[in-house]
Description:
Blueprint: H1 2-26, H2 35-52, E1 55-57, E2 60-62, H3 66-76, H4 78-95, H5 99-120, H6 125-147, H7 155-209, E3 213-217, E4 223-226, H8 229-234, H9 238-241, H10 252-268, E5 272-279, E6 285-296, E7 302-311, H11 313-360, H12 364-387, E8 395-398, H13 399-416, E9 419-425, E10 431-434, H14 436-452, E11 458-466, E12 471-477, H15 506-516, E13 520-525, E14 531-538
Parallel strand pairs: 9-11
Antiparallel strand pairs: 1-2, 3-4, 3-7, 5-6, 6-7, 8-10, 11-12, 12-14, 13-14
Amino acid sequence: MFLLDYIVNLAIFSLLVSTPLVIRSFINHKPIKHVRLLVGIYGGFVSIILVMLSIHELGYTYDIRYAPVILVFAYLGPFAGFITGTFGLLARLFSSGHWDTAITGWAALMIGFTIIYYYVKKFTPLMKSIILCGSYIIIYVVNVPIIFNVFRDKPFFHFQYILFVMLGVMLGLLMIESYVKLHRFNNRLSDMYRMVEASESKYRLIAENTSDLIMVMDRGHVLTYFSPSHEVVLGYQCCELEDVKLCRFLHPDDVELFKTTIDRMFECKESKLIEFRLHHKSGHWIEFESRCVPVKGDNDDIEHIVIISRDISERKQAEEILLQSEKLSIVGELAAGVAHEIRNPLTTIKGFVQLYKWENGADEINDLLLSELARIETITSEMLTLGKPQAVQLHRTNIRELVENTLELLSPQAHLENIQFNLCVEESPFFITGEKNQLKQVFLNVLKNAIEAMPEGGNIHIHLQKGEEGECVLTVQDEGCGIPEELLPRLGEPFYSLKEKGTGLGLMICNKIIKQHHGSITYQSKAQQGTLVEIKLPLVS
């Protein structure tokens, strides 16, 4: 009969413990005000119900009301535990006699639990519960069978009672700890979900607002994702790009190279930088520079390739313009050099013909010779004008922007050569009067020379600062092979170059442009110690 009563008590106790936990899981998890007071009162309510279900034996009442007291003490401390214990004591005194035993046991437990709690308050609730259970057993044995001599000859009865109190505590611990762990796990999942959601939102913000094309391709060269920028850059609607092979939009001359590169990436698992042309909906072709990054799957195999493409049409046009400008400058210098060399002997020949005509009189042959010589002289004069400074449109220009644009233009080549640009600029503005394209050509030539001097890679330091007497100073320092000091004076001479395939015209053009802008360019270098190029240009107010 006792066993059935205890089982009923444990079942109802389990229900009463789990009910608030279940309710709490369905509402928000904001901290509850006065939680110790509320839990203490609820624990007292549970104790009252357990007292109402108590077992009566020879005038004594037995129940498991101290199971909620132990749990409340372990999780919320003496204040809440004292409230729960007081409710349980009052219910016990109201329901039966033997007040001395009940009050003495209650006082001993409250004092003992409070003292023990302050010694073990840094422990986990689980450890506190185990220690409090041990102290409860000791206090019960000392008070009930020994001091008050209650059923001293029935140790099995006391063992059975203590066992079911401990089972009540164990059931309560199991449900509370399960709830706490699930609550923590749910919070971690919620935090992770929020982090993933925030990260996804950031990536979506980048992908949907960048001008670069971002696409994901599978092994069959089919696009599984493409950024909204495709609509703006290529003119196609999203529905026209879904589940379509990229090769359909590639220039026919680029298809084979593209397929070979992509297939090799699936095998080698290495990133590649490639250039190709894509067809715009209006009919023209757009050149792109693309960084292709392989993405590994669960089995360490490449499942997708992320392709980030940037329109380089303007850059290509700028490079062609700069190249054409350099060619024209070279032609002008060559023409001027050839014309100058022709005019020297031409002057001598013309002088002797005129002297011969003066001494021997005019005749048809002399007039014909002088006429043809005059024509040659006119042609050489026209050739000389090619080498003269041309009229340029000078505008107020921010040299800092020019340098940054030039570095951006050369950054792909520098990246391939394992070279890092380090730009250091003072905060003050740097405005000059000049021609942007010509100055950009100078910066391109100087930086390209620095890159080509560093086949093993390294750092190129660019420093822009204010100099003396209202001028700005741009220095470019590389870590390349350097130039012997005895050869420095020859830099800038036509057709003189230290590079195997150099023409010797790049620095000549740089010198000419800087001179036209009323500036100066100097070189400092030693073999195997790198080269420092210093460009000075006058600032405008």
